[in-house]
Write a structure and sequence with these properties.
- The chain is α/β, with parallel strands linked by helices and 499 residues long.
- It folds into two domains: 143 residues, Rossmann fold (3-Layer(aba) Sandwich), CATH 3.40.50.720; 280 residues, Dihydrodipicolinate Reductase, domain 2 (2-Layer Sandwich).
- It contains 15 helices and 17 strands.
- It has a nine-stranded mixed sheet with strand order 16-15-14-13-7-12-11-8-17, with helices on both faces. Strands 3-2-1-4-5-6 form a six-stranded parallel sheet, with helices on both faces.
- Helix 5 runs parallel beside helix 6, helix 6 packs antiparallel against helix 14 and helix 9 packs across helix 14.
- 44% of the residues are buried.
- The N terminus is likely disordered.
- The structure holds 6-O-phosphono-beta-D-glucopyranose (BG6).
- 6-O-phosphono-beta-D-glucopyranose binds next to loops.
């Protein structure tokens, strides 16, 4: 995971084919990442962008849109127009339906005339199109044109339950070998997420405490101030469970809980992560209902502005029971974590945009100080702040000066920006570079996705079976309804109120 990856500099031409190139993802994320790789000489030497989509665009319109995307969304400002021009000098647009064989034949002819050797396919379309695109890639004459490597990058969501994910995997594997498949979870490309393993396994001091002897519980929070915006069409069929829990949250949990891999390579790291997913305590429907909590945002204030409730967002059904907040209490049933609850939560329209992992350590075995006098309990909590204030904080109890045995929380803090300067690079830069150099460590493997869906599907089935007509609501800009506090409070614990 941490070895420097090199781009292919062999001189062979590499086509980067984006299906669904006209969508937002390409403009906002993929193109700025490609530009960043170009500006830092990390693209393969003969790199050629090919856009494939239904919209009535031309090569010129493609270049214009991609250029605008870089200008607007690149973190490297001001942008170097020469670099953009060179990167897009041979950019080609193929206008086609995804189920029209002729589009794929045109792509094959393009590979032929351009003497393309390596091919990176990127699925940035709505997921409903994935299977037909993959089938066409497999059945068309495209396969006769590869002379170097061929890979496919697939965006989330990868299926919508265990059945559809298994079916999609079947189609994927009928055309590609597993080592050609790069399933994206962009959280794994975040610098701070990669740092979880560095922090745990490059340092000797925390790992001995990282287990059920010393850890009381773990809290993982992924909170957003954004609402559903213009994505109701997708979100209504997804909810936070499919959008965040099945992927980002379970990935963060796996990295937090996994054993040290035997080496930092794709096989070893993913072997350990998948063991954690398989160790999640399986739930019957009644367990799933007792150990999860869901809710939906109502109108409220975000940054001083009134925002609409979920049901008033454009495209949301008036009787929608799609959850925009979810909390779960999970148990990793292995020797290291037996009995330690992992509380995870994620919501839209929360008071803060933040992702953090908090390791709450147990209290001392026998209190020596007069607890009546203490300002709160001595809170040994280690927080990995993954975003936006990237850093790590360790809180401990310190004696308040002059007071008789009064203890106050004090902090040791590490801040990425202060320590290293600058902003961490965009996740997609690292992910695209790794995919082009064939390193799959930061991508999810078939068995991993399967295990994550297997667990998630048990919750989905229980929710479906419970036939609720309405969900509890929380005012936008709050940390969820009171039920969210009761949910964690049942264990005598409380949600952290991040600073
Ligand atoms: C995406 C979800 O995967 O992650 C979005 O589909 C969510 O709904 C986003 O907003 C959050 O990503 P980040 O990088 O902003 O934390």
């Amino acid at each position: 995971m941490f070895k420097e990856t090199q781009s292919d500099q062999s001189g062979d031409s590499t086509a980067f084919v984006i299906f669904g190139v006209t969508g937002d993802l390409t403009r906002r994320k993929l193109m700025p990442a490609i530009y960043e790789l170009a500006a830092t000489n990390r693209l393969p030497v003969n790199f050629q962008l090919v856009g494939f989509a239904r919209r009535d665009w031309t090569d010129e319109i493609l270049v214009q849109n991609m250029t605008e995307g870089v200008e607007k969304f690149s973190r490297r400002q001001p942008v170097d127009t020469e670099v953009i021009k060179n990167t897009l000098s041979s950019a080609t647009y193929i206008m086609s339906d995804f189920n029209d064989p002729e589009g794929y034949n045109r792509l094959a002819r393009l590979f032929d005339t351009r003497k393309i050797c390596n091919v990176m396919y990127y699925l940035a379309t709505p997921p409903d199109n994935y299977e037909e695109i993959i089938r066409h890639i497999g059945s068309s004459s495209l396969k006769d044109h590869y002379c170097g490597w061929t890979r496919i990058v697939i965006e989330k969501p990868y299926g919508r339950d265990i059945h559809s994910a298994t079916e999609l995997d079947g189609v994927v594997h009928s055309v590609f070998k597993e080592n050609q498949v790069f399933r994206i979870d962009h959280y794994l490309g975040k610098e701070t997420v990669q740092n979880i393993l560095v922090f745990r396994f490059a340092n000797g001091i925390f790992e001995p405490l990282w287990n059920n002897h010393y850890v009381d519980h773990v809290q993982i929070t992924v909170s957003e101030t954004n609402g559903v915006g213009t994505r109701a069409g997708y979100y209504e069929t997804s909810g936070v469970i499919r959008d965040i829990f099945q992927n980002h949250l379970l990935q963060l949990l796996s990295l937090t809980a996994m054993e040290a891999p035997v080496a930092f390579n794709d096989k070893s790291v993913r072997d350990e992560k998948v063991k954690i997913l398989r160790s999640l305590r399986p739930w019957k429907a009644s367990d799933a209902l007792a150990n999860t909590y869901r809710a939906q945002y109502a109108s409220g204030m975000i940054d001083g502005q009134r925002v609409p409730g979920y049901k008033d967002e454009p495209g949301v059904a008036p009787a929608s029971i799609t959850e925009t907040y979810m909390a779960a209490r999970l148990f990793v049933d292995n020797w290291r974590w037996a009995g330690v609850p992992f509380y995870v939560r994620s919501g839209k329209r929360m008071p803060a945009f933040l992702t953090e992992i908090a390791i709450q350590f147990k209290q001392v075995p026998l209190p020596l100080f007069n607890w009546q006098n203490m300002a709160g309990d001595a809170p040994n909590v280690l927080v990995l702040n993954l975003q936006p204030n990237e850093g790590i904080t360790l809180t401990f109890g310190a004696k308040l000066p002059g007071q008789i045995n009064q203890i106050a929380p004090a902090k040791m803090e590490f801040n990425y920006q202060q320590a290293f300067g600058g902003n961490p690079p965009e996740a997609y830069v690292r992910l695209l570079q790794d995919a082009m150099s064939g390193d799959a460590t930061l991508f999810t493997r078939s068995d991993e996705v399967h295990a994550a869906w297997e667990f998630t599907s048990s919750i989905l089935d229980a929710w479906k079976g419970s036939q609720v007509k309405n969900l509890p609501v929380y005012e936008a800009g709050t940390w969820g309804p009171p039920g969210a506090d009761d949910f964690i409070g049942a264990g005598g614990r409380h949600w952290r109120e991040p600073a």
